[in-house]
Amino acid sequence: MFNIRKNIFKYFRFFIVFAIISLFYAQIASAQRMQEEAKNMIIAGISVEGNSFVSSETIISLSGLRVGDVLSSVNETKIQSAIINLWKRKQFHKVDIIVDKISDAGIFILIKVEEFPRLNQIIIEGNDELSEKDIKEAANKNKGEVLSNYDTSLINREILKKYSEEGLLFAKIEPVIRYTELKNYVDLHLFIDEGNKFKVNSIIVEGNDKIDDDDLVDSFEETKTKHWWEIWKSVKFDKAKYEDDKKLLTEYYRNQGFLDAEILKDTVIYSPDNGKVDIVLTVNEGNQYFIRNINFEGNSVYSDDILKRRLDVLQGDIYDAGKIASNLEANQDQTDAASLYMDNGYLQARLIPQEKRISKDSIDLTVMVYEGIRFRNGKIIIVGNTKTKDKVIRRELYTRPGEYFDRSAIIRSIRALGMMNYFNAEKLKPDVTASEIDNTSVDITYNVEEHSTDTFNASIGFAGTFGLTGSIGFSFNNFSLLEPFSGGGGQIFSFNWEFGSFSRYQTFSIGFTEPWLNDEPTTIGFNLFDTRYSYYFDMRRTGATVNIGRRFKWPDDYWRGDWSLRWMYNDVGEGSSSYFIPGTEITLSQRFSRISTNNQFFPSVGSKFGFNNDFAMGSLGIGTTDYLKTEINYDAFTPLLSFDGIDRLVFMVSSKWGYVSGFKSDSTIPPIERYYLGGNGLSGWGVTPLRGYEDRSIGNDNGDFVLSRYTAELRFAISLEPMPIYVYAFAEAGNVWSSFAKTDPFDLKRSAGAGVHLFINPIGMLGFSYGYGFDNPKGSTSPSGWKFLFHLGNQ
User: Fold this and answer.
1) For residue 154, how many C-alpha atoms fall within 13 Å in the half-sphere facing its CB?
2) 272, 415, 530, 572: which has the fewest C-beta neighbours closer than 10 Å?
C-alpha cells in the first residue's frame, strides 16, 4: 500500500513537471509566432496618445515613421530613431512607441507622449537692484513656450549671470512651478534673494619688485578701485571681467619686457556684511628682456631698413611684445610693416615674430616674412545705388581696375564716399573677393545705401537785433541739370530767402555748382544774391559770384584751391554815407583748404583747414571799395570710443581767426565784412556764433576788425541712421577788437554748456544749445548767464 501511494505521488509529480514544461514551450512558440508575424511587416497605421499642444500629425511627421514603412522587428532601428527624433524637439519628457496590434494588413504603431507644460507667466518676488523687465529679458521665455526642467535651470543661470554683472555675486533664486487652471499651463515663480552688491575695495599686488603697484592695477580695464572724487567711475565687481583683467596684467608685463611674468596666486576676499571685495595678487615677475638683434628673413620687396623703420624698435630697447605685434601687423593708423605690403598688392603677406632667448636678459628677434603673390584689382563693383549714378560714385573712388591692390586706396575711397553725404555711413563697408579673371586678381565691391540729401528749410526764430526772423529755401545736393526730376548727377542747386521782421533784414540767393567739370576734379559755379539791411543804416547789396576750384595732387589730394570773382553793387540809404560808402565792389577771393574728415554731419577722424583771402580791388581802380580780409579756420576730430566699428564718442577742437583792413587811410570797410560776435549766428551777415551770449552782444555795434574764437566739444552720436543725432558738451571762448594793435589774445569771453544736433530730412541740420556765459557782454556789469539758443545748419 505504501508502495502504491509512493508510485502515485511519483507519477503525479512527473505530470506536474511535464505540464509546466509544456506550457512554457507553448508560450515560447506563441511568442516566436508573433515575432515571425511581426517580421517584415508593413506599418498599417500610426496613432498618437497623450498630446495636447502638438498635433498628432506633427508628432507623426517629426518621428520619421510613415505608413507603408517595412519593419523587420518591433525593436528595429527605425523605432529607436523615431524616439530620438521626438526627444530632440525638447517638447516631451516621456516618449514610448509600441505595437498596438497586428493584423493581416500589417502592424499598428502607437506613439505615447507626455508633454512638458507651457509657460503662462513669470512671477518675480524679492528683486530690487534688477527691474522686472531686466529679469524677464534675461529669462528670455515667453508665454506659451515650453518650460522644461532644463529651461528652468537655464533661466536661473542667465538671471544669476545678470546679477553677477551688477556685482551681486551671492544672489539666490528659488524657482517654483505651479499649475494653473489652464490645462498643462504653469506659472513660474522666482523667489529672489539678491544679497549684497559687491564693490572693489582694494587691489594688492605682492611679489612685484620692478613694476609699481599702481601701474599694474591701472592695467585692469574693468576691475578698479576709485578715489572719492571719481564719482563717475563704477567699481562693481564682475568675476568674469576680473578674469579678463588678469590676462591684461600679464600682457602688461610682456609689454614691459617681462616675458615670463605670471600670476602665481590670486585671492578674492568677499565681505558679505559690507558688500566689499579685496583682491590680493601674487606675481612672479621673472627677468626683464632687452632686444639684442633684429633680423628679417624672407623679405625681397622691402629692405630690412624700411621694415625696421616701420617696426620702430631698436637694439637695446625693452622687448615690448605688444608694440612689436602692433607695428608688424595690427596698427590702426596703417603705419605697421604689413600695411606696406597691403598697400602694394601683397594681400597674403604675413610677418611673424620669432623670439630667441640668448641669455637671461637678451632676445634676438627674427621676423619671418611671407610675402606671397602680388594682386591686382579686378572688377570694381558698386551695389545699392538707386539714385546716384555710377559715374558720380566712381569718380570719387581711388581704386581702379588693373591697378595693384591698395588697402589705403580703399580706405580713402570709403572716406570720400562718406563725405559725399549721399549714403548711410554705417553701411559703407567694402568686400574684397577672389576674381574670376585669374588667381592674381581680386574684385572690390562697394556696398552703398542711399539716403536723401536734399533739404528744404522753413524756419522761424527770434534774434535780438532783427526781432522775428525766418528763412525758406531748398538745396538739391544730388542734382542733375540734364535729368532734373530724377537727379543723381552730384550737382548742387540751391535757393534761399531769409528775413527779419519789419523789413529790417532780408536776403535772397540762388546758386548752382558743378563739382566735376568734364569728369575732372574741377569745380565751377555761380551765385546770385540780393541783401537788404535796415538797422543803424539802410543798405542794399545786389550782386553775383562766379567761382572755380580744383583738387590738388600735392602736397596730397586732400588739398584744394578755390577762386571766386564777386561783383556787387552797394546802395546806401539817405543819411548813412558817413558810415558806409555806396558804390561797386569787385572782390577776388582765394581759398586753400584741406579736408580729411570722414563724414559731413558727424566727422570722427581727420581735420579741416581753411586759409581765405578776400581782396576788394578798389585800390587798383577796379570798383570803389578796397579791403583785404584774411581768415584761418582749423577743426580737428579725435575718436575716443566706438561700438561695432562705428565711432560714437568724438573730441573736437576748433579755432577761427580773422582780420580785415583797408589799403588806404580813408578806406571804409563795408559793415558786412566786419566781425560781430555772440548768439547763434542767425541774426544776419557777418555774425560769428558764441554760445552763452546774446546775438551780437560782444564788441562794437558797428562791427570790429579782428576776430578770435576757440571751441572744444565732446560729442556722442546717439544715432547715425536713419536720423543722425548727437549730443555734446562744449567750452568756448572768443572776442573781437577794433584794431590789430588793441588785440589781446587772452582777453576772451568764455562760455560752456551742452546741446544737441540732429539732421531731419528734408529740413536739414538743426540744433539746440544751453550755455552759460561767464563774462560781461557790452553794456553790462554782470555775466551773461544762461542762454538757450536754436541753431540752423552748421552754426
Assistant:
1) 10
2) 272
- What is the fold, at CATH topology level, of the domain defined by 118-193? Ubiquitin-like (UB roll) (3.10.20)
Q: Is residue 690 within 8 Å of residue 680, measured between CB atoms?
A: no
pLDDT value, residue 428? 87
The bridge status of strand 199-206 relative to strand 276-284 is parallel
> What's the rounded Cα separation, in Å, for the pair 543 and 569?
6
Are 509 and 540 in contact by the 8 Å Cβ rule? The answer is no
Instruction: Give residues with Cβ within 8 angstroms of 290, minimum separation 6.
Output: 257, 316, 317, 318, 319, 361, 362, 363
CA distance 29 to 571: 125
Residue 173 in contact with residue 250, Cβ under 8 Å? no
Interval 737-775: pLDDT, tens: 999 889 999 999 999 999 999 887 666 678 899 999 999
| pLDDT the model gives residue 637 | 96
Helix (H) or strand (E) holding 571: strand 559-572
Give the integer Cα–Cα distance in Å for 25 and 44: 30
In contact, 401 and 375? CB cutoff 8 Å: no
652: pLDDT strictly greater than 70: yes
Check whether domain 41-115 has CATH 3.10.20.310, yes or no: yes
Mean pLDDT taken over the chain: 86
- Global confidence as pTM: 0.67
Single out the residue of 349, 270, 274, 271 nearest to residue 310, CA to CA: 349
At residue 795, the 3 state secondary structure works out as coil
Region 21-49: what's the mean pLDDT?
Answer: 60
**Phi/psi of residue 317, nearest 5 degrees:** -70, 155
What is the rounded average pLDDT of the residues 33-58? Answer: 75
Find, among 216, 310, 207, the residue nearest to 255 by Cα. 216
The strand pairing partners of 176, in sequence order, are 189
- Residue 116 sits at φ, ψ, to 5 deg, of -65, 155
Facing residues of 479 across strands?
491
What is the three-state SS of 322-355? HHHHHHHHCCCCCCCHHHHHHCCCCCCCEEEEEE
C-alpha cell at 488: 543723381
Give the pLDDT score at 429: 85
Domain 290-370: give its CATH code. Answer: 3.10.20.310
According to CATH, the superfamily of the domain at 376-447 is membrane protein fhac (3.10.20.310)
Spatial separation of the C-alpha atoms in residues 632 and 657, rounded to whole Å? 5
CA atoms within 13 A of residue 652's CA, in its CB half-sphere: 26
* CA torsion, ordered 43, 47, 50, 52, to nearest 10 deg: 130
